[in-house]
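Input (structure):
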């Protein structure tokens, strides 16, 4: 017979006792993952920045101090990507309460560390129980799934850290919090190599990083020249995009809006079904970077209209939204991210108006509020015919049960 130690018995009693006496939001397990992402050197550039995570110093812990997530490798594109091999793969765990993030920023030439408490576990518990539309709708796989399943930690310039909760498919993403990490004054690249990198392993110096083939290929020469001269990226762009505005989506002309899938400059996103529109119409939103509108024309034909609000290639997930950011700032002067949590009256909301012509081959987009009507910039529009109740061309017709889900949810 196997021997059970007194320590094992005490631990078993402790775990059972905690599960019985602790609030459900501290002990209930969910199937979730965690990953990290990193900013681009410039939001107008062509590829991402580079950083080194410090081994053993990037983790999340639950309310009892047990480690429930860790990541070891470099991150994914800004605000996105799945956990995969560089983070915690989805499995059943208690929700995190605290977080440590430690990394070296090549562009900034500094080490940073953040020790932070996550937002209210009760709120996280409520978010993790929300349902959303399955992200496999391209194959006609319409079903209800958890709306959120992955924590995404984003390292921005100068030690700014933004934390999101997202779905594995990316249709839903919400910002949870942002933090300022502290600089580790005594840690240098040489010291890091001495502690963490075996003699047999290669590690880039900052000079090597400037010469790396990928950097020479992707970064603009003027960007590398600025970095070499002492310039470092600023937090301003990331803080600016965090500002949310009171506006809602509407369609006019030969279009009657049904559902939409929207993506925003602060990396939030939301897939809104018809029965969710009233709630979303009262929700503050950042400047959009893309939206797919599902609608019917006056004759009842269903379409999608896929619109991109950014120009050309993007940089590690970051779009240049400067032109439309300025339009929103003109419509809502002096508004900042500090206003995101303040109540807004319904009469303060503007409308993002998409006007479609009768021939379905032209759209104009304006931000409208009262007597103000400001044109918005967009760079591509794709219109596709759809069968009733479908979200992609050529997919199977939804079943009666799936149509019920689209119209009314669970």
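Output (sequence):
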């Amino acid at each position: 017979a196997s021997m059970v130690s007194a320590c094992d018995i005490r631990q078993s009693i402790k775990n059972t006792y905690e599960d019985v006496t602790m609030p459900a939001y501290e002990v209930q397990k969910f199937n979730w993952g965690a990953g990290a992402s990193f900013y681009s050197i410039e939001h107008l550039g062509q590829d991402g920045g580079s950083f080194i995570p410090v081994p053993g110093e990037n983790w999340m812990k639950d309310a009892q101090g047990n480690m429930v997530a860790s990541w070891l490798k470099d991150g994914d594109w800004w605000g996105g990507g799945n956990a995969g091999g560089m983070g915690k793969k989805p499995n059943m765990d208690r929700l995190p309460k605290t977080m440590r993030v430690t990394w070296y920023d090549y562009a900034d030439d500094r080490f940073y560390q953040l020790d932070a408490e996550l937002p209210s576990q009760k709120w996280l518990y409520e978010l993790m129980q929300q349902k959303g539309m399955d992200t496999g709708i391209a194959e006609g796989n319409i079903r209800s799934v958890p709306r959120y399943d992955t924590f995404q930690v984003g390292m921005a310039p100068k030690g700014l850290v933004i934390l999101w909760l997202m779905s594995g498919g990316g249709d839903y993403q919400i910002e949870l919090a942002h933090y300022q990490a502290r600089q580790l004054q005594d840690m240098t690249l040489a010291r890091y190599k001495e502690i963490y990198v075996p003699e047999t392993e290669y590690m880039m110096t900052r000079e090597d990083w400037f010469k790396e083939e990928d950097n020479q290929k992707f970064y603009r020469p003027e960007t590398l020249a600025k970095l070499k001269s002492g310039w470092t990226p600023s937090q301003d762009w990331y803080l600016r995009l965090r500002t949310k505005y009171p506006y809602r989506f509407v369609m006019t002309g030969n279009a009657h809006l049904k559902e939409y899938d929207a993506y925003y400059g602060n990396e939030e996103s939301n897939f809104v079904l018809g029965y969710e529109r009233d709630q979303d119409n009262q929700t503050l939103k950042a400047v959009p970077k893309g939206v797919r509108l599902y609608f019917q024309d006056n004759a009842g034909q269903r379409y999608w209209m896929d619109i991109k609000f950014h120009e050309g290639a993007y940089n590690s997930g970051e779009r240049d939204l400067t032109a439309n950011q300025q339009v929103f700032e003109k419509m809502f002067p002096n508004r900042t991210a500090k206003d995101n949590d303040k109540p807004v009256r319904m009469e303060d909301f503007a409308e993002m108006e998409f006007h479609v012509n009768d021939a379905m081959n032209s759209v104009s987009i304006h931000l409208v509020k009262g007597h103000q009507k400001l044109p918005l910039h967009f760079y591509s529009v794709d219109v596709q015919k759809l069968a009733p109740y479908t979200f992609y061309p050529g997919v199977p017709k939804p079943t009666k049960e799936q149509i019920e889900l689209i119209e009314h949810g669970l």
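Notes: The mean pLDDT is 88. The longest helix spans residues 6-21.
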